[in-house]
Amino acid sequence: MTAPLTADAHEYGLAGDGTADDRPALQKLVDALGDATAADGRPRTVRVPAGRYVIRDRPVLWRSGVSLIGAGRGATCFALTNPGAPTQPVPLAWFTTAQHGAGRDNHIADVTFAHFEIDGSGVQTEEYEVLAKGLGLQYVLRGRFTDLYIHDTAATGFGCDFLQDTVVEGVLAERCGRQDPGEDMGGAGIGIGVGGWGPVERLAVTDCTATGNGTNGIFLELQQDHWVPPRGIRITACHTEGNRYGISDWGADGLLVTGCTMLGNHVAGFDVSAQGTTSVGGRGGIVTGCVIDGNVGDGIALGNTPGPYAFRGNRISDNGRYGYWQHNLAGGDQEPATDIVLESNDIHDNALDGIRVDAPLHEPAIFGNRVRNNGRRAAPLTRGGGEGVTCGPLSLTDPHADWLPGGHRGKTLTVGAGDTEVTAVVTDNTATVLTLAPRRPGARTAWPSDAVPGPGTPYRLPDSPSPRTGLTAAAVITHPYVHGNRVRDDGHPRTQTHALWIAHEATWTGGRVSGNDFSGNASAATRFDSAPSGGRWRDNDG
């Protein structure tokens, strides 16, 4: 075969009719162009006209220097299927360390994947298989992935690792990880393994969207625990919604997250923890100018990091638990996090505490924040049922109720009795309607087996916890700097009970607490179940 610099896929045997298996022809073409590139050093491009191209039972082994360019999302679609190989994962393209010996000296270089769709709904493996991705390349140099629509894959949608001098832009990943129950590895919309190129990996992820994916919307994961967490990675102008986690840093150093939105994710909008394969959390990151809103659990969940980490100028609001939660998971780093910075954030209307510290901090700086109207989970224990009570796929309505708006946010709703009992999580409520979270990311109903409870079914909601504060310390905190914050309730006497609570299990030593506005909270400005030791407390209002 002659090897032109640009090859039309139809001219080389790809049918694109939605029926014929186009994998053999595509593999043959990729091999021919890859051989030609290796011979003369000139990268090649496969142009794929509009059509539906079936990739059946085996993925295409990709070659360096070969790009794949479609006619646009929805026009050019690669449909992945495995009817004859139920144990075989079928990404569109793969090149991995385990299967193909990929590494720094055996990598994919100078490739572009652009302007097409990957439909992974036709792949169903007998057991969950992390390689059942949309794209599965490792060790890519000078890559560009742009304007891709990847959806309904069994595992991660965009699952490429070790990306050097690479841009991932305009990727839409929806309902990926459908075979992942949410606790297995992978299963993300955009999941990128890091660390393979060494301490610096120059990667930009920009203008991407990830919705309804089984685990993370977008995440970075250190792949070997003895590797140095890499610097040089940026995530900008991305949107994550309805995933288990929105954006997660599981092992980078100095990750920059700027101008992103993280909405309605089930566990947390932004997460740093030991969830990844190496149990290594990120460190040194900066999150700025983001909207982290309406997540079912926490807005920001940060733990298993030695620090530092900084959050500046973000809106963290209407989340179902804490606005910001400092915690450590078992199995990860347990040392105090040093130099955690919360600066100039607007933290408001979260269900429980605005800021909650359940893991040790050393020299944190919390300054210039507006922490208001948190503790919205203020409604008392409620029981109901009978005439007029109805359930929808994502709601429960009781026309006789008179609930405090937002007062059940984040609570677990129990419906039915005995063997018919089911639960769902409340994301918000009006006086008569509870809005419920989907039972898992990507689901269209809150109820198991899609069976909506019948009219009149009894229900109950638990009591509200107390206290619910602007800032809670429930761990060892040494030499904190808390200055210039406005921590108050603006006309909501049934929500934020205290500005600052030092719980009985906390140890607060030294530091400076000054120039804060602690006035206007429902119960008192402060509550000290454990007395602070030393430090300077002065010029605080309230």
Q: Please tally the helical runs, counting DSSP H or I stretches of 4 or more residues.
A: 2
- In terms of quaternary structure, what is this? single chain
Distance between the termini: 81 Å
**Largest sheet: number of strands, sense, barrel closure:** 30 strands, parallel
* Cα-atom radius of gyration: 25 Å
What is the average per-residue confidence, as pLDDT, rounded to a whole number? 95
**Backbone shape:** globular
Poorly predicted ranges: none
Give the total of beta strands.
51
Helix content: under 10%
Strand content: 35-45%
Helix-and-strand structural type: mainly beta
Describe the structure.
- It contains 2 helices and 51 strands.
- It is globular.
- 4% of the residues lie in helices and 42% in strands.
Features:
542 residues, ten-stranded parallel sheet, single chain, 51 strands, mainly beta, 2 helices
Brief overview, please?
The chain is mainly beta. It has 2 helices and 51 strands.
List the helices and strands and how they pair.
Elements: E1 6-8, E2 17-21, H1 23-40, E3 44-47, E4 51-56, E5 60-61, E6 66-69, E7 76-81, E8 93-95, H2 97-100, E9 108-122, E10 135-151, E11 161-164, E12 166-174, E13 190-194, E14 200-206, E15 209-211, E16 216-222, E17 231-236, E18 239-241, E19 245-250, E20 256-258, E21 261-263, E22 268-272, E23 285-288, E24 291-293, E25 298-302, E26 309-312, E27 315-317, E28 324-326, E29 337-338, E30 340-343, E31 346-348, E32 355-357, E33 361-362, E34 365-367, E35 370-372, E36 382-384, E37 390-392, E38 395-397, E39 412-415, E40 422-429, E41 433-436, E42 459-461, E43 469-473, E44 476-478, E45 481-483, E46 486-488, E47 498-502, E48 507-509, E49 512-514, E50 524-528, E51 536-538
Parallel strand pairs: 1-3, 2-4, 3-6, 4-7, 5-8, 6-9, 7-9, 8-10, 9-10, 10-11, 10-12, 12-14, 12-15, 13-16, 14-17, 15-18, 16-19, 17-20, 18-21, 19-22, 20-23, 21-24, 22-25, 23-26, 24-27, 25-28, 26-30, 27-31, 28-32, 29-33, 30-34, 31-35, 32-43, 33-44, 34-45, 35-46, 43-47, 44-48, 45-49, 47-50, ...
Antiparallel strand pairs: 36-42, 37-38, 38-41, 39-40, 39-42, 40-41
